[in-house]
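SAMPLE LOG
Freezer: B-3
Tube label: C17
Construct: single chain, 953 aa
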Amino acid sequence: MKKNYILAFSLSALFVACGGPKTVVDGEKQIFTRQEVGEILNNILYAGGKDLPYQAPVDKPWVLNHTDLDISVDFDKHTINGTATLTLQPYYYLQDSLVLDAKKMDIFDVRLSSQNGAPTGPAPEKLNYTYNDSLHLIIKFKENYTANQKVQISIDYQANPDRKVFQLDQTTGTAIKSDKGAYFVNTDGKDPVSPMQMWTQGEPQANSCWFPTIDVPNQKHTHKIKVKYPSQLTCISNGLRISSETEKLAANAGAPMKPTKTDVWEMNQPHAVYLTMLAIGDWKAVKDRSIKFDKEIPVQYFVEDIYTSDAKAVFGNTPEMIEFFSSFTGVPFMWAKYDQIVARDFVSGAMENTTAVIHNERLQDPDNDMEDYVAHELFHHWFGDYVTCESWAHLTLNESFANYSEYLWREYKYGKDNADAWMFENLDIDPESSNKNALVNHHYALIDNQFDDIRYNKGAGILHRLRNHIGTDAFKASMKLYLSTHAYKNANVYDWKKCVETVTGTNMDHFFNTWYFSKGQPDLYVTIDNSTGSSVLNIINSTDQGEPTQLSYGKSKLLKLRILARTDKGRNIDTTITTSVYQELNEISFPNETIAQYIVDPYYSNALIIKGKSFLREDPKNIDPEEIETNYQNLKFSQEIKASHIIQKQMYVDWLKSYVQFGVNLSKSPDWLSLKTKTQERFITETLNGLQDSNISRVWLPLSNDFVFKPEETVEDKMFMADLFPANEETQQKFMDWLRTYYNNPSITAKSKLQFYNFVPTEMESKMDVVFPYYSNPKKGIEDIENAAKTGNSHLTVLYARIFYDINKEKAMANNDLLYQFTLSAINNPEINDKVRRDLALVQFSRLTNPQKKYDLMLAVFNSNLHKEYQFKVCDRAIPFADETSGMENTQFLQKMWNSEVVKNSILFKRMLKKATSKEWESLQNEYPTEKDIIKSSTKDRYKLIKIIQNVE
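STRUCTURE (predicted):
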C-alpha cells in the first residue's frame, strides 16, 4: 500500500483564498450506462485474480436447525465416538436426499429418528447412505420432504481427527495452521510440562472432522452436547452446562479404573456451525464479576493452575470491555456467558467460539501484553457470531470489525493517541499485499488464503475511514441497525452498505466501490506551483503506468481530502475538498498568496497511512542538505497545526530517512559536521517531544530507535550507522535528564518502565547509572533488586536486574558477579514467589555466556522447588544457539547438563532438554536442509549434541 498523504515545503510568500473544482454531492443519485453496469459487475466478479475460481455463497437446499451430540472422548486413541442427531428441513424445494460434511469418520449406522416431531416407529427407520470419499455422507430418503417438514436423523459414528486423508490438510494460511478439527495434547504424558488437553478448532470448515454436519458459514444451528471424558479434567463448551455427573465406581470393582464424568451443555441461541466448540483439560476456573443487563452474564477465565494468580492481570478488563462494546454498538451482549480458555499448542492466535473463546498459551503470561487479542475475540461476538458473513468472500464483516475493535477499546480505555499509535503499527501493509485483491474477494483457491492482512488490518483501516467519513454517531447507528436487522442470521457487505445508507440518507456507492469492491487504494501526488505569484495546489490522482489503477464507476468514486496549509505570511488554512479519483488533475488556486507548507490528508482518516519497508531510500542520488531541512520543517509544521500523531510520526520518519540517506553521500555537503551536529540535537529533542505523551511513547521510541542503528550495520564501505547516531554528549544528557524524570515518576507502572527500557538505545545503557547508581554503588543495586523481589513485583525486579547488569557489563564484571550470586541464592529463597525467581533466572540466562555459570545456575533451578513449567521456561531460555561466538559455549553448557547426575537420574529433565532444543533443531534444519550441509557448517558440534538429545525416549 502506498502513501495517501503528501506534504511539501517551500520558501515563497503571498495571501490566500480558496477555490477549486466542482464537487459531487454525496447524496447525488447515481445513473449508470449499460456499459458502466457491465464494468462494475465485471470488476466485482473478476477483481483479484481471473485465474482463480469464483467462490459464491453455498446454496442451502436444507436448513440445519439443531444438533444433538452424545459422545465420548477417547484420550488414548484420539477419537470421538457417539451419536449425532440432526434436525433439518428443506429450505424451499422438495428434497429426497441430504449431503452432510463428515470428514475422516467411520460411519456405523444412519437412521430416521422422527418426522415433524413424531417418532418413526418402535424402531427408527434405517436409511440408505454412501460414504466413499471420507468427506461427504450422502443420505437417501424414501420420500420427498417439503419446506414445512422437519426430519430428524441419527448417525452413529467415530471421528478420527488424526487420520490422514489426501484431500485434507492443505492449509497454507498464517491465521489457522491446521484443519484437523479436534486436537489432543500430551495425552501420553511424555511432554514434561504440557498438561493433557483436547480442544477443537472449527474455523473455517473443520468442525465436520468431529461431528457430521453442514459445515458452511451460512448454516446456523442450536445444539446440545452430552460428552463423557476423564473425571480429573475440566470441560467447557458453548452455552450453559445444564448437568454434570461423575461416574461412581464400586469399591469391589477389582482392578483400578479411571472414572469418567458426563456433562451436558446446551446452546439454545443459533450460531454458525464453525463456532461450535469443545475443550477438555486440566484448567482452573477464575471467576470475574458478572455483567448485568436484562440478565446476569457470568465471566470466567480457564488457565493452568500455576497461572491462576495472573489470570485477571491478562483478562481482567473483560467485564468493562463487554459493557463498552455493548454501549458502542447499541446492542447489549446477547449470549448466556463469556468464558476464555488458554490452550496449549493452539493452531491459531485465538478463536471466537461463541461464549467460549480459545486463546493461545502466550496469554497466560501477563508480560506478553496480549489485551488486543481479548478485545478482538470479544467483539466477534457481535460481528461474526451474532451476525455472520454469508460466505468467506465477505470475511471482512467478521475480521475487519474485530480488528477495529482493538482500536475502539484503546481509544476508550487509553486515549486516542494510544489508539492512533496502534493504527500506525497495524496498517504497515506492503503495496503488493494491498493490491492483491479487493476487501470483498470471491476469487481464491483455498479458504485460508482469505485470512490475511487485507481482511484484518486494511479492513480495520477502511472502517476507521468510514467512521470519519460519516461521523462517529452515524457509524454507531449503522452498526446497531446492521446487528439488529440481521440478528442470529447471515449478511453480506451489501447489507452493511444498505444500513449505512439507511442511517445517513447518503448514497455510499462511491465509498464501497472504492474501498470494498476495488483492490489497492487511491494514491495522491501533490505539487505546489508558485511561479505566477499565486499558489496553485495540484492534486494528481493515482495512475499505474499512465492508466487508472481502478475502473471508473461513473461519477461515484469520490475522495474527501483535508488540506492543511500555511502561507509565507503565517496564515493557517484548514479546509476540505471532494474529488473524483478519476479526475486526473485537481487545481486548487490561492490568488495573491503563496503557500509555504501544506499537508493533504484523506479526510481526517488517520488510517491507511503506511510506514516504508525500509527507511533507506532507493534514490540516494537525489538527496541533498536542503531536503533534510525541508523535511524537518514539515515535521514542525505538522506539530504546530496539531496534525494527527499518525501524520507526525510519518513526518518524523521522512526527516530521519532523508538525513540517514544523505549520510551516504558525505561529499555533497562541505558543512557535513555542522549538519550532523544540528540533526543529532534535533533527533533527541523531537524524540523527547514524542515521549512526553506516555500513550505513544511505546511506539515513538522504537521508531526513533530505528535510527540509532546497530554499529555493525553499514551504509557504505567503512561507514557505520552509528556514525550518524546517537547524538553527542550534550544531547544525550538531555535524554538522560528526561529518563531520570520518567523513572522517578510514581504514577508510571513498573511494567511500563520495563517496556520502555526495552527500547533504550544500547549505546546509552551504560549511562543509566545517572538514574540508577548501580555501578557507583552496587550494594544499593542488590538491595533494590532484593526488596523488589520480596514484594513479588516481577516487573520491578527484572527492571532493576537488567539495568544493574547492563550498567556493569563493560565497567565492572565483578559487580555482575554479585548479581549472579544473588540470583543463585534467590532461586531457593521461599520468601520470593515462583514467578519472580523464574524471571531473575531468565535475566541471567539472557546475558550469560560462561558455560560453567550457566551450568551452576541451571542446576540450582533443577534442584529448586520451582514449578516444572517455570523450570522449563528457564531451561528453554538457557540453551538458545545464538551467534557463532556463543555456539561452542552453549554446546559445552549442554554437554555438562546432559552428563550431570540430576539429568541422568530424571527422565523429566531429559525431556525438558529435548523439548528446549527442538525449536533450535527445526531452525537448523531449515537453514541446513541435509545432514551433510549441517556437518559442513560451523554448527557441527551443536548438531551432534542435538542429535543426542533428539534420541531421548
